[in-house]
């Protein structure tokens, strides 16, 4: 959607102006000692409300039903601040948080997904804005497929479990389909793992977070568990193993990838270990451009 989009800095400035424009209508937030904190709080609240598709009118209606006067006033003042902000940017700027809402309103007018088959992949959850778009897709499209990261055992587990959030997503999608009389087919379970080529990693991926473990009846030589005393010992073991495989089994250094969760945990450790064994390497790390000289 084309337009003059708000930057975070511009959003902060305009929220400050929006609050000043209606300051005479405020009671609770009028004498806020820290205006910067109030601006940040309102932007945070606006982000939450917009992703949940809650309009300021909804806040006003809810406030009318609330008995507690303090909460009633907070809802009212939050609502008019958000309206003041929207009025301020109405003809000049676009808020990225409104993109899905604008898309939803456009899709109500145009049958865009007619005769299309839609695939939704790599999501582990949806906010309210996204669910409203999915509802349109379900109503308009010829077919819609949604992949969720859960297996049949986890889906059928009763009560809270590791996969409960994913089960909840599936339940919400089913409810949306039923409300719109959309046919729900039987789920297709993609049980064959393509990511891991060896049996050891496949079994680890399947059982690592399960209470009931599946015992592998074959010797697994392609997975090694090493109990290191610290990060330095761990890095040395990795480097030492790479060197051994290159020298004795004719591997090449380019055949290896070292993956770790957090950069800071191994900074200055893994590279030192590789240098110790004269192993050439490339580290894919982010660097702050502000501290780099300009190049012509």
Description:
By secondary structure, this protein is an all-alpha fold. The relative contact order is 0.06. The chain has a two-stranded parallel sheet with strand order 1-2. The two termini are 35 Å apart. Helix 1 packs across helix 2 (35-51), helix 1 (8-21) crosses helix 4 (69-89) and helix 3 runs antiparallel to helix 4 (69-89). It has helices at residues 8-21, 35-51, 56-65, 69-89, 99-109, 128-140, 152-156, 164-179, 199-207, 231-249, 263-266, 270-276, and strands spanning 117-120, 143-146. The longest helix has 21 residues, at 69-89.
Tally of strands: 2
Strand order of the largest sheet: 1-2
Mean pLDDT: 87
- List low-pLDDT spans: none
Describe the sheet with the most strands. Answer: 2 strands, parallel
Alpha plus pi helix count? 12
What series of H and E elements makes up the topology? HHHHHEHEHHHHHH
Radius of gyration: 27 Å
Helix content: 40-55%
- Ends distance: 35 Å
Structural class: mainly alpha
Q: Which geometry do the CA atoms define?
A: extended
Strand content: under 5%
């Amino acid at each position: 959607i084309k337009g003059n989009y708000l930057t975070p800095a511009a959003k902060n400035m305009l929220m400050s102006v929006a609050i000043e424009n209606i300051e005479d209508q405020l009671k609770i937030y009028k004498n806020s000692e820290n205006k910067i904190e109030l601006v940040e709080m309102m932007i945070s609240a606006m982000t939450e409300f917009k992703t949940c598709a809650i309009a300021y009118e909804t806040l006003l209606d809810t406030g009318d039903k609330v008995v507690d006067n303090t909460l009633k006033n907070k809802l009212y003042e939050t609502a008019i601040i958000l309206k003041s902000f929207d009025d301020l940017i109405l003809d000049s700027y676009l808020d990225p948080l409104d993109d899905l809402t604008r898309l939803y309103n456009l899709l109500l007018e145009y049958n865009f997904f007619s005769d299309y088959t839609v695939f939704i992949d790599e999501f582990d959850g949806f906010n309210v804005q996204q669910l409203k778009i999915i509802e349109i897709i379900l109503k308009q499209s010829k077919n819609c497929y949604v992949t969720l990261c859960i297996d049949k055992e986890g889906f059928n587990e009763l009560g809270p479990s590791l996969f409960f959030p994913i089960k909840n997503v599936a339940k919400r999608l089913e409810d949306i389909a039923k409300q719109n009389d959309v046919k729900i087919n039987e789920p297709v379970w993609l049980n064959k793992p393509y990511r891991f080529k060896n049996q050891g990693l496949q079994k680890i991926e399947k059982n690592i977070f399960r209470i009931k473990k599946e015992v592998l009846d074959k010797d697994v030589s392609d997975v090694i568990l090493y109990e290191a005393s610290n990060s330095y010992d761990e890095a040395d073991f990795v480097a030492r193993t790479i060197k051994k495989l290159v020298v004795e089994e004719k591997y090449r250094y380019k055949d290896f990838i070292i993956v770790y969760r957090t950069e800071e945990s191994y900074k200055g450790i893994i590279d030192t270990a590789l240098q110790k064994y004269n192993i050439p390497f490339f580290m894919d790390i982010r660097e702050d451009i502000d501290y780099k000289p300009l190049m012509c």
